[in-house]
Amino acid sequence: EVQLVESGGVVVQPGGSLRLSCAASGFTFDDYTMHWVRQAPGKGLEWVSLISWDGGSTYYADSVKGRFTISRDNSKNSLYLQMNSLRTEDTALYYCAKDFGVGGATFDYWGQGTLVTVSS
Amino acid sequence: AIQLTQSPSSLSASVGDRVTITCRASQGISSALAWYQQKPGKAPKLLIYDASSLESGVPSRFSGSGSGTDFTLTISSLQPEDFATYYCQQFNSYPHGLTFGGGTKVEIK
User: Fold this and answer.
1) How far apart are CA A86 and CA B69, in angstroms?
2) Which residues in A60-72 are b (16+ Cβ under 10 Å) and which e?
3) Given CB atoms, is A62 within the 8 Å cutoff of chain B?
4) What is the pLDDT along chain A (120 residues), one digit of tens a residue?
5) Cα distances (Å, whole numbers) of residue B83 to A83, A90, B5, B15, B77
6) Quick check: B44 and B37 in contact, CB under 8 A?
7) Which residues in chain A are contacts of B34 at CB distance < 8 A?
8) Are B6 and B88 in contact, with CB atoms under 8 Å apart?
């Protein structure tokens, strides 16, 4: 059974930093591109970032480019999101999502999310 | 960036009704579209990929159609467990700028 378990979400002040983690199990982690997707309270879904199976390629939404860094450790079956220069508009539930794996980017498994609140 | 516009933003329907949700892309995206269902307090669930392919385990009352700029998600006979919010998502611009529609909330009439 595929499982994705996010952690690391807390309350942080504007301008602060945070590192989210996602522990994956139930599939061959290093075969798949992985993503972070977020959802602000009461709002829709926003794709944040992706990383290729080997970590060699990373992409970001314009809203986080230059502030967030995605990474992975295939030896630990783990995905990470380093978040710097946080803004109030980064407040959201952050989901880790597995790529479908066949052309393009479709998210076939999601974690339950970890809540990041940016507030003074 | 490619924008996705869903309509309606919400609808009320009864069990057994046929429900259709529309997703329009700001430019052609071929068949690079997926549909997700999200229930309150839960993560989204993949329903349809490549515009019309049913994800494994998803009931056959769900179907997707369309290509280019206009897409639809149809629920042929609405069931109590189908009351949720539905999102479309495009990946034509992969790996750049993956985008979601604004969502359609399906409520009980």
Assistant:
1) 35
2) bbeebeeebbbeb
3) yes
4) 999 999 999 999 999 999 999 999 999 999 999 999 999 999 999 999 999 999 999 999 999 999 999 999 999 999 999 999 999 999 999 999 999 986 668 999 999 999 999 999
5) 34, 28, 20, 9, 12
6) yes
7) 106-107
8) yes
Number of other residues whose CB lies within 10 A of the CB of residue B8:
12
Interface test with A, best of B4, B98, B105 (most A CBs within 10 A): B98
Q: What is the dihedral of CA A39, A5, B62, B66, to 10 degrees?
A: 60
SS (H, E, C) chain A: CCEEEEECCCEECCCCCEEEEEEEECCCHHHCCEEEEEECCCCCEEEEEEECCCCCCEEECCCCCCCEEEEEECCCCEEEEEECCCCHHHCEEEEEEEECCCCCCCEEEECCCEEEEECC
Q: How many residues does chain B have?
A: 109
Q: Do B98 and A50 touch (CB under 8 A)?
A: yes
How many whole angstroms separate alpha carbon A94 and alpha carbon A7?
A: 9
Distance, in Å, from the CA atom of B75 to the CA atom of B73, rounded to the nearest integer, reads: 7
Q: Is A3's Cβ below 8 Å from some Cβ in B?
A: no
Distance CA A61, CA B86 (A): 22
